[in-house]
Design goal:
The complex is a heterotrimer of chains A (115), B (408) and C (89). Chain A is of the alpha+beta class and 115 residues long. Chain A has 3 helices and 8 strands. In chain A, strands 3-2-8-7 form a 4-stranded mixed beta sheet, with no helix packed on it. In chain A, a hairpin with a 5-residue loop joins strand 2 and strand 3. Chain A is globular. Chain B is mostly helical and 408 residues long. Chain B is globular. In chain B, 62% of the residues are buried. Chain C has 89 residues and is mainly β. Chain C is globular. The relative contact order of chain C is 0.27. Classes of the chains: A alpha+beta (115), B mainly alpha (408), C mainly beta (89). At the A-B interface, helix 1, strand 3, helix 2 and helix 3 of A face helix 4 and helix 13 of B.
Chain lengths: 115, 408, 89
């Protein structure tokens, strides 16, 4: 069972959502393989500030201001594509949303952080 | 359970929450300068925010994506980034103006020092944002903002020339300095259509967990709630026109706005006016802080929303905290908050096209909206207001200069 | 190769005729894979940049011309070259 989709319109820049429904970044770029061999396919989603470098002038500008690694999500981890890209594992397992984890550590110290 | 009662409550909150410091400043100043001649400008602005708020609410309810999610998905990284920067700059200026307005209102009520009250305002706003659930915030500040209805009473008690008032609803070029008139026209329409409102409204739809079944509620909030909210703007201008213009009083202070309610209604009028201003402007401060946090979180794909709780959306929470601190730093320099208000409205006007164009695109996109995409009416209004917004965006800064910021 | 490198590349035929630029990449999504099937090519006008001239259906597709990948001879940083007579469907 397959559907047709346009990568720029339907996948690129869309929200990544982990298996628990948590938002954990955007699909900042896609890694293709087999372009030269004539059998191109998407093998991974690239996310993180380093991935913005390929996104034009403002991408490079943003990448130089914001520090952060590039995280590579193999395409097998994608469960389905609705509006967002739903992943098979949790954000933690895929090394996503670590910015939120870092900030959460000190927010949790404040009383009322669960409100 | 969205029954009639629930809808009525939502409308009440929308009415009380409609007015912000920009509306107050521009409506009172326009009344003091041009009497009732610019009432039609308010109608124009209110029509615009109704059109686009309804679209934003529908986009949020049906596609479960907020405006800024969609901006990046639809228009790409570059366009989205520029829209983000412009939007955040404007949100920050608006927030600074609202916080300044809160401090002035507190000063008029308490007589304490402005700077001390700035600190108090910021602390209380941060506490409210930290402790209260989304729905409570909207309801409480919305309902208490209804105290502004005192201006409707004041407008009647001041016995304006209702014939002249009626004339004011007809578009005209006005009498007096043309540049100043045009400046107020842009400011009044812009103050009604300010960007943080639409960013906030679409994210609010998701905070409130709206779905397609809530589209009636959305429409009621936007159409009825904001129309009646517009009545408050009319009341401000009419009262100011009836009281200030004949006496040649310049409306450069927020206190003058409150006096407009005191003259016909005495102490009670003054207190109600100040309380109404306090809650309406505080509500606007909260909404613009949220709007700033929503935008940046949505662009970068972070978790966001008060419904995720503070620790559940850490960078989003940090974002609104940073917004408040930055806004505080702007106003604590002692800059005139009324001037910040006027500048924030004018710069918002310049950013309006970049805000509204993506909304119109997404609201028409069937991949997001399915069968709920814009119909003919929404599109006619949407395109009409897009043209309006483009025109005033181009005219805004030149008019700011040519009219000497409304001073002539 | 990354998608960002492919988007916006100029597209020419073997004999040098210009077909415009790559607007988007058409792919086939299955439960486990995402295979590229063609290129959405055309003049990169303002409308295309804004995503207009795009879906009237619920599918996330641009309705503009797609050149099937089998007609693509080469695609790298220099640009995309397709067979003469390759027709966008």
């Amino acid at each position: 069972m397959s559907t047709e989709i346009d990568l720029g319109l339907g996948v690129l820049d869309h929200q990544l959502i982990d298996s628990e429904g948590r938002r954990c970044g955007n699909a900042d770029d896609l890694e293709l393989e087999g372009v030269r061999e004539g059998e191109p396919r998407v093998v991974a989603i690239l996310t993180g500030p380093a991935a913005w470098r390929g996104r034009g002038f403002f991408g490079r500008l943003a990448a130089s201001v914001v520090r952060g690694d590039l995280v590579r999500i193999p395409w097998e981890e994608v469960a389905e594509i609705e509006s967002g890209v739903h992943l098979r594992k949790t954000a933690r397992e895929l090394r996503l949303g670590r910015g939120d984890d870092r900030v959460r550590r000190w927010i949790e110290k404040l009383p009322g952080s669960s409100l | 359970m969205k029954n009639v009662f629930g809808i009525a409550l939502g409308i009440l909150a929308a009415i009380g929450g409609f007015v912000d410091i920009g509306d107050i400043v521009f409506n009172v100043a326009a009344g003091a300068t041009f009497g009732y001649q610019l009432l039609w400008a308010v109608v124009l602005g209110v029509g615009g925010i109704i059109t686009y708020a309804e679209m934003c609410g529908r986009v949020g309810a049906v596609s479960k994506t907020a405006v800024f999610d969609a901006v990046r998905e639809r228009l790409g990284f570059g366009v989205g980034f520029v829209a983000l920067l412009a939007g955040e700059l404007v949100n920050l200026m608006t927030l600074a103006a609202e916080i300044g307005g809160v401090a002035i209102a507190l000063q008029l009520l308490s007589g304490l020092s402005y700077r001390a009250l700035l600190v108090l305002a910021v602390l209380v706003l941060a506490l409210v944002l930290w402790l209260m659930p989304f729905q409570w915030i909207e309801r409480i500040f919305g309902y208490c903002g209804l105290a502004l209805l005192v201006f409707v009473v004041a407008a009647f008690k001041l016995h304006p020339d209702w014939g002249a008032v009626a004339h004011g609803f007809v578009p005209s070029t006005g009498s007096g300095n043309g540049w100043v008139y045009a400046y107020f026209l842009v400011g009044l329409a812009g103050a009604a259509m300010i960007p943080y409102e639409v960013y906030f409204y679409s994210s609010g739809a998701i905070e409130e967990q709206w779905g397609p079944k809530d589209l009636g509620l959305n429409r009621a909030n936007a159409v009825i709630g904001y129309s009646l909210g517009g009545l408050l703007s009319f009341a401000l201008m009419i009262s100011a026109g009836a009281l200030l213009l004949p006496q040649g009083i310049n409306a450069e202070l927020l206190g003058t706005a409150a006096l407009v309610a005191e003259a016909p209604l005495g102490q009670a009028g003054l207190i109600l006016a100040l309380v109404g201003i306090l809650f309406a402007v505080s509500g606007a401060a909260i909404d613009s802080a949220f709007a700033g946090a929503y935008s940046v979180a949505q662009f970068f794909g972070w978790e966001w929303g008060k419904y995720r709780h503070n620790a559940g959306a850490p960078r989003f929470t940090l974002a609104w905290m940073v917004m408040i601190v930055l806004a505080f730093l702007i106003v604590v320099t002692g800059v005139d908050p009324i001037m910040v208000t006027e500048l924030s409205v004018i710069f918002s006007v310049v950013a309006l096209p970049l805000t509204y164009i993506p909304i119109l695109l997404v609201a028409n996109d069937r991949a997001y909206m399915g069968n709920y995409a814009n119909g003919v009416v929404a599109n006619i209004l949407g395109v009409f207001y897009l043209v309006v917004v483009l025109v005033i965006a181009v005219a805004a800064i030149p008019l700011l200069v040519l009219s000497n910021m409304g001073q002539g | 190769m990354r998608l960002s490198e492919l988007l916006g590349l100029s597209v020419h035929t073997e004999s040098g005729g210009s077909l415009g630029r790559v607007h988007d990449v058409r792919a086939e999504l299955t439960p486990r894979t995402l295979k590229v099937t063609g290129l959405v090519v055309g003049r990169l006008g303002l409308l295309e940049r804004l995503g207009l001239g795009a879906p009237t259906s619920a599918a996330r597709l641009r309705t503009r011309d797609v050149i099937p990948w089998k007609d693509v001879l080469r695609a790298d940083r220099r640009g995309v070259v397709v067979r003469d007579g390759a027709k966008p469907r």
